[in-house]
Amino acid sequence: MTFDNEDAVARALEVASLRDLSKEKRVELAAMLPDIPEPLRFRLYDIVPDFRATELAAVDAYERTYAAGLDADDKNQERLHASLGRTRDIIEGKLARDGLSEEYERYLIESLKEADQLEAEKDTENKAFISNQARETRRGMLLLQLGVPIVTAIVVVGAEAILGRGVPRSTR
Known about the structure:
Elements: H1 6-13, H2 23-32, H3 38-47, H4 51-95, H5 102-145, H6 150-156, H7 159-162
């Protein structure tokens, strides 16, 4: 749905005036920006008090969420590598014992290979995760560098989810 004027935007937000929007309504407005023509989008900066503050809060929330996601990913990777390292140590300890049957020795060697394969798969998944995070960040920064208003750029990279709104408006 495209909004042609301020009244249409206010009706969509179910408010009488755009001048006294709550934080929640400002976030809803930000989610609507892709459907608002550029001239009206720029007028909203003058019409809606604290809209720029909402933008900056969205940027800050995005940065904190991104950093927290990478930090959690690092910790998960450390735990995974430590766990698989302990598993390998146990298997290698058993392999060092004398008198193992060939069948049991093959089983232990196969278990080592499986642990190594799992670690390699998880490493590949982690690299894909980090690559995706970097791609989304570059995308947002490119939008900002091209002069797209901050709110539009943040909405494009998922501000609603970052600000705790859950399901984006377009999928409701």
